Amino acid sequence: AQSVAQPEDQVNVAEGNPLTVKCTYSVSGNPYLFWYVQYPNRGLQFLLKYITGDNLVKGSYGFEAEFNKSQTSFHLKKPSALVSDSALYFCAVRGTNDYKLSFGAGTTVTVRA
Amino acid sequence: GAVVSQHPSRVICKSGTSVKIECRSLDFQATTMFWYRQFPKQSLMLMATSNEGSKATYEQGVEKDKFLINHASLTLSTLTVTSAHPEDSSFYICSARQQVPEAFFGQGTRLTVV
User: Fold this and answer.
1) Do the Cβ atoms of A43 and B106 come within 8 Å?
2) Which residues of chain A does B97 touch, with a Cβ-Cβ cutoff of 8 Å?
3) Residue B93 and residue A44: Cβ atoms within 8 Å?
4) pLDDT digit of tens for each residue in chain B (114 aa)?
5) Is A105 an interface residue toward B (CB < 8 Å)?
6) Are residues A52 and A71 in contact, defined by beta-carbon separation less than 8 angstroms?
7) What angle do CA B21, B66, B86 make, to 5 degrees?
8) Nearest to B43 among A43, A51, A105 (CB)
9) A26-39 pLDDT, tens per residue?
10) How far apart are CA B38 and CA A111, in angstroms?
11) Which residues of chain B neighbour A36 with C-beta distances below 8 Å?
């Protein structure tokens, strides 16, 4: 079985400050890890993925994530948050031989001006 | 990235009627499409996996006779909510995969049954 935990329902930061959204996962074998962002009444937008290789992955809109195998974590980061980053963020995982994605519960990010 | 188009974005229907939602992969062929349901402020719940030319695989607890899925071509999957009731009101999202690991999502459909 595979699962994702996003321990924080909400993250609030001031514009210009660093943003971190936490994610830990459980999967059999090697993981494929993903971050998606969702704006109100919209589908999910792909931000970045970890498949293999460098543990630090860079994605869209200045986001990056660090894969940590020993801690089974894949935290999303942005050095300087923007008000427009306010949205719902989902971490997702699947095993390399699985076709189903498992999603975390989501973290609502609010960036205040 | 690949584009997945979902239509309609919003639909209101009367209780007892059926509603069809379309999911199209616009610039790639998707052998597998997925249908999710999302409740307010909650995560996505996988309803079914749709493979082109074969019957959909439904997740446990999802009524296959209520949520009819058809994947007639490599670029189109449809979800029909039959005999809709107010409790079927929700946000439905489709996704599709090509040969890359990540899935791409449609814009979602807000279904309201009155």
Assistant:
1) yes
2) 99
3) yes
4) 688 999 999 999 999 999 999 999 998 888 889 999 998 878 899 999 988 888 899 999 999 999 999 988 889 999 999 999 999 999 999 999 877 788 899 999 999 999
5) yes
6) no
7) 80
8) A105
9) 998 899 999 999 99
10) 24
11) 105
CA–CA min distance A105, chain B (Å): 5
Task: Give the integer Cα–Cα distance in Å for A75 and A113.
Answer: 24
Tokens of A94: 């699947």
Token pair listed for B35 = 């249908």
Cα(B93)–Cα(B78) distance, rounded to whole angstroms?
11
Q: Which residue of B has its CA nearest to A60?
A: B1
What is the residue type of B34? Answer: F
> What's the Cα-to-Cα distance from B14 to each of A21, A54, B27, rounded to whole Å?
40, 52, 34
**Cβ atoms of residues B95 and B2 within 8 Å:** no
Residues of chain B contacting A32 with CB distance shorter than 8 Å:
101-102
Handedness of CA A103, B63, B79, B52 (dihedral sign): positive
Tell me the C-alpha distance between B52 and B97, whole Å. Answer: 12
Which residues from B are below 8 Å from A34, CB to CB? 101-103
